[in-house]
Amino acid sequence: MSEENHATVAVTGVTGALGGRIAARLAEHGVPQLLVGRSPDRMPELPGAQRRGPAAYGDAPAMREALEGASTLILVSGYRTGRRLEEHATVVEAAMSVGVDRVLYVSLVGASPVATYLNARDQWATEQFLAGAGVRHTVLRAGWYSSTPAALADEEFVVSGPASTGRAAFVTHEDITEVITAVALDDRPRCEHDGAILEITGPEALTLDEAVTRIAAATGRPYRFETETLEEAFARRWRLGMSGVQIETWISWYQAIERGEISTVTDVVPRFTGAPATPISDAAWWPEPRTARGVR
Ligand SMILES: NC(=O)c1ccc[n+]([C@@H]2O[C@H](COP(=O)([O-])OP(=O)(O)OC[C@H]3O[C@@H](n4cnc5c(N)ncnc54)[C@H](OP(=O)(O)O)[C@@H]3O)[C@@H](O)[C@H]2O)c1
């Protein structure tokens, strides 16, 4: 499709894993884009895309300037800073003030004020803010990455945490990207995605033992999962020198799996892409051990 057929889409987080993939896919579809973020020099060069910024989420004037000319905003959630709601709200308000009329917010599966996974709580807060902001919007809750168990492994390829036999419907970055791209491309003036919360999951809910066993088979590396008690989980991470926030956050990641909070399998990937969701063993790439942010 030619660029004239699409309104301009602003994408944040393009220096990161999801935003970068989304921007690349939109460029392939000929969508004119504004790439918005803190470091324009680290943004990808894409056809039909302008690099805008520096604009941090919390910087209203810089955001207004960076978003000028966009019709749709794809807001990839930022880091858990303690002010994530305020930062996201600043981006949305800046967007509305310069005429953006649709926001696609990339949230997280399991978002809830009582989510076990601490990272999912203020994702819910942004969803609530959007619901009352008076802007056309869709919430796209990204499932947990298929790659994360591999990134959590230690040098011996052991993944350890208090997840027991709980399950998670891990999903690939590529499937998440395809769904978000499909929703962004659907730029009818009104559509059934308005106000919707779409949970983007993988095709099946796996225990961490099953997930790690499949990653081992796919990579030929001896990954294995060892469940830990809470006490073991705290003590081991403390000995490794992790901060309290890191310990609490990552233990909550495993506990959310143990409690089944990430286990729902939805039809969102097949519905939006026309293809089945990718099984974990067919993921396109695997990270090296110990590459999850701040994690052991
Ligand atoms: N689904 C999952 O399993 C999963 C896993 C991890 C995270 N997440 C969530 O999904 C979000 C996106 O994931 P990802 O894998 O793409 O993360 P990522 O690779 O760390 O990328 C995050 C992006 O957000 C940008 N950003 C963060 N805070 C910002 C701020 N205050 N102002 C401007 N830009 C900001 C970063 O810009 P800079 O380059 O300038 O830092 C980067 O481009 C994460 O932030 C997290 O909330 C989901």
Automatic annotation (TrEMBL):
UniProt cross-references to InterPro entries, sorted A to Z: NAD(P)-bd_dom, NAD(P)-bd_dom_sf, NmrA-type_oxidoreductase
Superkingdom of the source species: Bacteria
SUPFAM superfamilies in UniProt: NAD(P)-binding Rossmann-fold domains
Chain ranges of the NAD(P)-binding domain: 13-185
Pfam family membership, one: NAD_binding_10
Record-linked PANTHER family: NMRA-LIKE DOMAIN-CONTAINING PROTEIN (PTHR47129:SF1), QUINONE OXIDOREDUCTASE 2 (PTHR47129)
Protein name: NAD(P)H-binding protein
Record organism: Streptomyces fagopyri
